[in-house]
Amino acid sequence: DAKTTQPNSMESNEEEPVHLPCNHSTISGTDYIHWYRQLPSQGPEYVIHGLTSNVNNRMASLAIAEDRKSSTLILHRATLRDAAVYYCILGQANAGGTSYGKLTFGQGTILTVHP
Amino acid sequence: DAGITQSPRHKVTETGTPVTLRCHQTENHRYMYWYRQDPGHGLRLIHYSYGVKDTDKGEVSDGYSVSRSKTEDFLLTLESATSSQTSVYFCAISEKEGNQPQHFGDGTRLSIL
Lengths: 115, 113
Description:
The complex is a heterodimer.
Chain A: E1 9-13, E2 18-23, E3 33-38, E4 45-50, E5 55-56, E6 61-64, E7 70-75, E8 84-90, E9 109-114
Parallel strand pairs in A: 1-9
Antiparallel strand pairs in A: 2-7, 3-4, 3-8, 5-6, 6-7, 8-9
Chain B: E1 4-7, E2 10-13, E3 19-25, E4 31-38, E5 42-51, E6 54-57, E7 65-70, E8 73-78, E9 87-94, E10 103-104, E11 108-112
Parallel strand pairs in B: 2-11
Antiparallel strand pairs in B: 1-3, 3-8, 4-5, 4-9, 5-6, 7-8, 9-10, 9-11
């Protein structure tokens, strides 16, 4: 199974941009790149996902390298509420080739935001 | 927020007793998932369902069974709970197959003494 590698932790100041990196050098051609985050004592929350092109939504932007071996989640202006564990995950297909959306969570990056 | 309710939210029980956790959704989503989260392991998939009465095993399915008799409910059962099953359990749902976002419940904290 394709794996992702993320830094254990990162720090940012409030109202500054944050770039959270993720390496996925063994990604397959059909794997989507997903980002979730988990605030303390809550379930994971979907942030964004993409396949090849950069993606934007109200929460964040996802920049995907041309060779798809890495990606970066961008929070344009960090707030204290963005302090969470951020997970970069590859969407996997089952043996039959039909994805049931199974996600394999790694350890993620703990983001600390300073006032 | 997606309409997902997990019950109970907290439970303490003894080794060897049966335990059933319930996940209820009001979104009419086809796909439902059970994960457990433990320190040092992140979230791991236990079982998932791709329709009524259609379920399959995940990464850590030993000691767990599931049932889905209707779209809105996905039950996770520990037939004979062990201390190693002490964990936080999360249910998730998604609307479509193929890399669609999953929406998670608030979790059930289960302690087995």
